[in-house]
Design a protein that fits this description.
alpha/beta; TIM Barrel; eight-stranded parallel beta barrel; two-stranded antiparallel sheet; 14 helices; 13 strands; globular; binds flavin mononucleotide
Amino acid sequence: MIKINDPLTLPCGAVLQNRLVKSAMTERISNHNYQSTLGHELLYSDWARSHAGLMITGNVMIDRKHMESAGNVVFDNEMMLPRLEAWASAGKLHDNHIWVQISHAGRQTNRFGAMRPLAPSEVQLNKMGLFGKPKAMTEADIDEVIKGFVRAAKIAKKAGFTGVQIHAAHGYLLSQFLSPNTNQRTDKWGGSIENRSRLLLTIVKELRWTLGPGFPIAVKLNSADFQRGGFTEEESLEVVKLLDAEGIDLLEISGGTYEKLAFFLLNEEENDVRPLKESTKQREAYFIEFAKKVRAISKVPLMVTGGFRSYDFCNEVLSNGEVDLIGMGRPFITNKDDIADFLEGKIPRLENRVLRTGIKQFEDSAEGGFYARQLIRYSKGRQFKLNMSPLWCSMFLVLYEFRKAMAKKILG
Ligand SMILES: Cc1cc2nc3c(=O)[nH]c(=O)nc-3n(C[C@H](O)[C@H](O)[C@H](O)COP(=O)(O)O)c2cc1C
């Protein structure tokens, strides 16, 4: 009977002290030079106290022009190593692992960052007019992306982070290459699923070669993007087989893109539009059904994130062998001081503390703003604040992106 407190040895030989993972959550607290700050140290030393076996950083970018948020850290030069070393050390205070999630936002770079971001093809993201029409990448641009991932991973290892995760989910660049909706190329990077996954697989190979056999390399992959004509479960399983052959250390399953967010879904929502089977809703974690299909074809250690809240359920899916690691995001914001006790079974359930506006169109942006504000508060040593204005939260991220991008242009 495997329990959440049991260690896990990864294929590369690294050992995680237990099965709980803080999943990636973008921190949005870099300085005007795209560097990490004291805030990162504060956040991660605090989270390390949870004793989670692994913490994955919020997405870190390879390129200043293609950011998920203007508050991201960019791992593009070694000048920032001293700051990164302090961040990595904070994340290892209690023998935790801390891995860097590496990404490029592609067409999901907002207009404040790039009016014409690079992407696989010129397929624009239509969301509140926030995203410009992308330019299709040339061979040289693709080569730069590969080099950028390698550079970022080298910096991560040098700084003392203990692993990396390649972000190939949620509609960012690598996920855009995987989806036939956003990748309409006719060269070796588009068309068949082998071609669409070529960029991801090339990066995996290059990272393994650069980082060596003993350094953990993980991939975060969508089960599907839930779009008509988009990346499907069948295709995702094909990619899993290809990844399996490369010998990665961990596969994290997620889903959705900016067009259809899937990871914010909560079981109790009644009016949800996302395509979930009733059987999945009844269980806490919404990607677990897909994880079973992955298990049937692959031996790669598996992590599912999204919805896990109760101790018994975590242990049930671990001991059934459905997953190897339990990923949690929002509880590390709203219940962060309870996690250590939860791991020991002293707290049976981490109750959701969610902001609701009551207006369906605003729920995602209000929730996103609510969590973003809590993370920024923590990075300044402040406490969790439950009562926040839903209206202000729903506007927060757009205003934040505008202000931060302008400040970086002026000061950077
Ligand atoms: C504030 C916030 C920021 C997030 N940022 C990232 C990110 O940078 N990279 C990523 O892969 N997922 C990100 N996610 C998704 C989480 O890793 C996780 O998949 C999601 O919150 C569902 O898990 P949960 O139900 O335990 O919260 C973010 C989620 C939240 C709430």
